[in-house]
Amino acid sequence: MSEITSWVKDVFLIILTLTFMEILIPEGSMAKYLRFIFSLIILAVILSPISYFMHK
């Protein structure tokens, strides 16, 4: 159960941090690429338990 709560905390902190960083980046040509990279990071964090349990 502690693994699940730790994972939820990690997901929450990553989303909160990336959202704050997204607010700080200026609008421009690089903004859409940074949002895409942020989305990939969030996806990787959310899917990380799946890879952990697949290797067990």
Q: What can you see in these coordinates?
A:
With 56 residues, the chain is mainly α. The protein has one domain (2-55). 86% of the residues lie in helices and 0% in strands. The protein has two helices and no strands. Helix 1 (2-24) runs antiparallel to helix 2 (31-55). The longest helix has 25 residues, at 31-55. The protein is elongated, with a radius of gyration of 14 Å. The mean pLDDT is 87.
* H/E element order: HH
Q: What is the 3D shape?
A: elongated
Domain count: 1
Low-confidence stretches: none
How does the helix and strand content classify structurally? mainly alpha
The span between the termini is 17 Å
Considering DSSP H and I runs of 4 or more, what fraction of the residues is helical? over 70%
Radius of gyration, rounded?
14 Å
Biggest sheet: strands, sense, closure?
Answer: none
Task: Throw out a few tags for this protein.
56 residues, mainly alpha, 2 helices, elongated
Briefly characterize the structure.
The chain is mainly α and 56 residues long. Helices cover 86% and strands 0% of the residues.
